[in-house]
Amino acid sequence: MNHALTDAIAQRNSANFFDPARGVDDDNIHNLISWATRAPTAFNLQNWRFIAVRSTDGKRRLRELAWNQPKVSEAAVTFIVLGVLPQAAWMADRLQASVDAGFMPAAMVPSWEAAASRLYAASPQTRRDEAVRSATFGASTLMLAGQAQGLAASPMTGFDAAGVAQAFGLRQEEVPVMLVAMGYAQDGNWPQKPRRPVHDVLELA
């Protein structure tokens, strides 16, 4: 198998050292997020948001909330990846493009909305789980898109979530799931660490 995507998967590592002199322009950031949002979400609710922290002041504030890890400010951009607590009321709007494209019957939308309402309405934990899942899918796709474009990345969960929410004005329904530092790698990063054998983690049923 030889494909740009599988090459990116095979080469992806978690970088700790970035070249602080090399930036990523806003057009490239927009492009990366356009790929990240191709990731799946339940009911196609697309319940995520991304904050691209690339200013000197923004990086300083975020680094202070991330245990002062240098990569937050040395990377070209550090994304705050947010999952948003899903609401069934979004359904008609989020599915309209699929209806307009002609492959989703309009009559199907109310049934999806009813299913989402049953799933989420009485279960705050399910809503939070869904927000975390969606953000994680988006972050993973973001890192692979960056890898395919020659950018290294580091997913980070070591940060003060409540502090980030306050410092960056997050809404109550937004969950800061992880940070993704991204930029051009410097020397000193380890390659991708070896993985456990497939037979240790796979069961054929």
In short:
The protein is α+β, with helices and mostly antiparallel strands and 205 residues long. 45% of the residues lie in helices and 14% in strands. The radius of gyration is 19 Å and the shape is globular.
Architecture blueprint of SSEs:
Elements: H1 4-11, H2 26-36, E1 48-53, H3 56-64, H4 71-74, E2 77-84, H5 91-101, H6 108-120, H7 124-148, E3 152-156, H8 161-167, E4 174-183, H9 198-201
Antiparallel strand pairs: 1-2, 2-4, 3-4
Helix pairs in contact: 1-7, 2-7
User: What is the radius of gyration?
Assistant: 19 Å
Main beta-sheet strand count, sense and barrel state = 4 strands, antiparallel
Strand content: 5-15%
Assembly state? single chain
N-to-C span: 25 Å
Residue-averaged pLDDT, rounded?
Answer: 97
What structural category do the secondary elements indicate? alpha+beta
Number of helices: 9
* Approximate helicity band: 40-55%
Total strands:
4
Topology as a string of helices (H) and strands (E): HHEHHEHHHEHEH
Strand arrangement, largest sheet?
Answer: 1-2-4-3
Q: Which segments are poorly predicted (pLDDT under 50) over 5 or more consecutive residues?
A: none
Shape: globular
